[in-house]
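Feature request, filed as a ticket because there's no other form

It would be nice if the structure record came with a short human-readable summary line next to the tokens. Right now we just get the raw output. Example of a typical job, pasted below so the devs can see what we mean:
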Amino acid sequence: MSRDSAALSTPVPSRPIRVLIVDDHEVLADSLAKVLDDEPDMIAVGQARTLAQARSRTRSEAPDVMLLDRRLPDGDGVEAIPELRQIRPTMSIVVLTATTADNVLVRAIEAGAAGFISKSRGLREVTSALRAAAAGEAVISPELLRRLLPGLGRSPRPQPELTNREREVLGLLAQGMSNAAIAEEISVSVHTVRNHIANLSAKLGAHSKLEALSIAVRDGVFDP
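Raw output as currently delivered:
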């Protein structure tokens, strides 16, 4: 990975973002850990080569974000996302993948991933993706999000009572808009947008923007 890619602008947290790297490629994982430790607002709190180690270190290291490889010696990282999130519900998971196959990415969204980053991307894009995930943003391009939403599974259930504003925010999230962009679009503060997202996520039983969208599509609350 090159460090020459442009970084995205994300809020700087009040304490370092704690990142757990789960990848069985030792050279790649070591390189990523060194890059993160060089960042003023991040720290690599550990590495895991297997899903078993990922479970253990999630419990012991309390990461804010997990950078998770899809293919691991003891299983599929995407399939393990629900279990990993049960261990630490506040943790965001960014899937590190070598594939852009829609079925894989859709499974990751449905499992509760905060987004994806390709192994072909630059190191600065990786750190930007981790910052975005820690800030509660969806780590996915608007174009890719629009492509994947129609492929999400559907199992209509009783719909929660969302306000008109919450439905409006949900529709803007489906366009891949950031909190700041949504705030500008509907002429409110970013803090107000965060509150709307928190409220609609609570009603949907979601812990991230992508999961909220996935549940909304599945339950028939939102039709992409």
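Something like this underneath would help us a lot:
Residues 1-10 have pLDDT under 50 and may be disordered.
DSSP finds ten helices and seven strands in the chain.
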